[in-house]
Fold this sequence. Notes:
Uridine Diphospho-n-acetylenolpyruvylglucosamine Reductase, domain 3; 14 helices; alpha+beta; 371 residues; 3 domains; four-stranded antiparallel beta sheet; 26% strand; Alpha-Beta Plaits; five-stranded antiparallel beta sheet; 29% helix; 18 strands
Amino acid sequence: MDHLKSEADxxxxxxxxxxxxxxxxxxxxxVGRPLSGDVIDMSGLSGVTxxxxxxxxxxxxxxxxxxxxxxxxxxxxQRLAFEPxxxxxxxxxxxxxxxxxxxxxxxxxxxxxxxGAARDFALGVRFVDGAGNIIKNGGRVxxxxxxxxxxxLMSGSWGALGVLTEVSLKxxxxxxxxxxxxxxxxxxxxxxxxxSAALGSPFEVSGAAWVGGAIWLxxxxxxxxxxxxAGALQDLLRSTGxxxxxxxxxxxxxRDAVPLHDHSTIWRVSVKPSDGPTVIAALPAGTExxxxxxxxxxxxxxxxxSRDTHAQLQAHIATLGGHATLIKGPDTLxxxxxVFQPETPGVAALSxxxxxxxxxxxxxxxxxxxx
Length: 371
């Protein structure tokens, strides 16, 4: 395994490669088919290279631990608004989650419904493509007139188009107060209806989840505003059931799908919120679920799922226009199924063309996204 210290090292290593390369930052997001090849260890490319609190921007090398960035931002009462999820508990992995891995996987948490995804906060990227070329796109401001929006393209590419070496991000101020409204005893349909009503209101809900038969609705901001909006939401949803308020709810419980961690097989399913109850109703007995994003994101947990179960789930999700990704499962399952939702023919052709353009030798995370 190579321990690289600079972008030039990464470019040289890729240029000289004779076979497949496995891109790894902190090693905490081991999703996709098990890979073979020489590991490119990005942990040596670490550190915040520029932070301008007044401009709400931060620039960091791809191997920078998330904790370092969060500590730097907290000192100026700022934060990453997209709330990236952490897979270390679910996958039982060790190591430090890195900012490069977060952007490469577009890891976004409950606040996505209000603030946007990780890719929406990525202002610029530097990366090395599969031919060893160093490429820069975007910058430290939101306006981007450089042509192709490679910032968005690299966000969620899972290292199959290039190896991120540096990212520029927009950050936001931290909030003064947070509270969560909890309504217990709701089934999936009732929950989605209530969450949709809350999200469609003018009261700026920043989290809407269904956990263990209860919905959680998060309200954040200035203390006076939070008090007013939480009260207005209580009035709006009074007929739904008994509503309690809790200022201590830990939203990482939802963000990281903590209730499902003990399941051997876990999927991350994305559909229209109105289709969430339909997906849950079609799952076999013994399945445990958690809904986020008002019902649009469903975490699905099972024990000892088969290849047929996986194929049936993805086929059902395809009819709804969504996608299901196998996040956790035995290597024997991950090696023999389409971990990521199979693409439609048109999208597959576009993906193939992009990979041939950015990684003509097909050496970066080879097979990770294979159908």
